[in-house]
């Protein structure tokens, strides 16, 4: 079957977006991984599948580059908002998100995050050795488990440039303490309203930006009292504005971009 897709990105975190509301199709993990290949496929960090929903404006399903599913993706939701426009309620794998497109960018509202500190000793010895040079020595709680619809381990570090994301990321992603694997957010508190972030995404690897990771890092910093309730999270691809007041939903605002439209024959 021939499918149209849109190549889009949010701060360099790139997607192939398929609108399947009128043409339902099944993409198995092997097919997703083949299409994600940057040499022989389309090339993307995640595939985004838009479908109909009985409880919201649309349903969005996310597939990582390795073919595994992701519950939610903040940058993908901004891209979908840009593509469709207006105000949307979006059914995701972890509930309903609100997406609003304005002249200032695309805002995504997520339910209040769930946050808990993580004891470094609960991780593997290899993880502890790797983390020892990175953790904020002056803080008793440098590791946080944050669920913003998908799970993140937020690691607060003193020197973001010292983080070897390609080595540290997969060690923590696959730590037995996280049986379903986990996204890893390495965050430096630059000031009371600014965070530097580097991401290792579960099933996709190192990416230039992660919307949910930015939300998780901001939530952990706010919970720990290290920042105010409105911060800019700077990543390799650019900055996202995140606001969270305890007891309320979390909002993220940033830009998205359409790169090109394409068509591909998909054999399922």
TrEMBL record:
It comes from Mesobaculum littorinae. The active site is at 73 (proton donor), 73, 210 (proton acceptor). The record marks 152, 201 as: Could be important to modulate the pK values of the two catalytic cysteine residues. Belongs to the diaminopimelate epimerase family. One of its GO terms (biological process) is lysine biosynthetic process via diaminopimelate. Pathway: Amino-acid biosynthesis; L-lysine biosynthesis via DAP pathway; DL-2,6-diaminopimelate from LL-2,6-diaminopimelate: step 1/1. It is found in: Cytoplasm. One of its GO terms (molecular function) is diaminopimelate epimerase activity. It comes from the Bacteria. PANTHER family: DIAMINOPIMELATE EPIMERASE, DIAMINOPIMELATE EPIMERASE, CHLOROPLASTIC. Catalyzes the stereoinversion of LL-2,6-diaminopimelate (L,L-DAP) to meso-diaminopimelate (meso-DAP), a precursor of L-lysine and an essential component of the bacterial peptidoglycan. Homodimer. This is Diaminopimelate epimerase. GO terms for cellular component: cytosol. Its EC number is 5.1.1.7. It catalyses: (2S,6S)-2,6-diaminopimelate = meso-2,6-diaminopimelate. HAMAP family: DAP_epimerase. Substrate binds at residues 13, 46, 64, 74-75, 150, 183, 201-202, 211-212. It is an enzyme of class 5 (isomerase). Keywords: Amino-acid biosynthesis, Cytoplasm, Isomerase, Lysine biosynthesis. SUPFAM superfamilies: Diaminopimelate epimerase-like (SSF54506).
């Amino acid at each position: 079957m021939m499918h149209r897709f849109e190549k889009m990105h949010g701060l360099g975190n790139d997607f192939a977006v398929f609108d399947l509301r009128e043409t339902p199709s099944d993409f198995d993990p092997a097919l997703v991984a083949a299409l994600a290949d940057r040499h022989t496929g389309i090339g993307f960090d995640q595939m985004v599948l838009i479908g109909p929903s009985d409880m919201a404006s649309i349903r969005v399903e996310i597939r990582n580059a390795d073919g595994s599913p992701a519950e939610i993706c903040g940058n993908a939701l901004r891209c979908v908002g840009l593509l469709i426009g207006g105000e949307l309620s979006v059914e995701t794998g972890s509930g309903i998100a609100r997406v609003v497109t304005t002249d200032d960018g695309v805002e995504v509202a997520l339910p209040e995050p769930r946050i808990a500190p993580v004891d470094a000793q609960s991780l593997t010895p290899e993880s502890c050795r790797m983390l020892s040079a990175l953790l904020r020595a002056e803080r008793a709680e440098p590791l946080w488990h944050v669920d913003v619809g998908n799970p993140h381990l937020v690691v607060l570090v003193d020197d973001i440039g010292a983080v070897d994301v390609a080595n540290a990321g997969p060690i923590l992603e696959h730590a037995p303490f996280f049986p379903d694997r986990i996204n890893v957010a390495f965050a430096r508190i630059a000031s009371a309203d600014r965070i530097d972030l580097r991401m290792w995404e579960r099933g996709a690897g190192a990416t230039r930006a992660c919307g949910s990771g930015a939300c998780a890092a901001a939530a952990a910093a706010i919970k720990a009292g290290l920042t105010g309730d409105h911060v800019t999270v700077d990543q390799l691809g650019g900055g996202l504005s995140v606001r969270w007041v305890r007891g309320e939903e979390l909002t993220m605002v940033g830009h998205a971009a359409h790169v090109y439209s394409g068509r591909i024959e998909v054999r399922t």
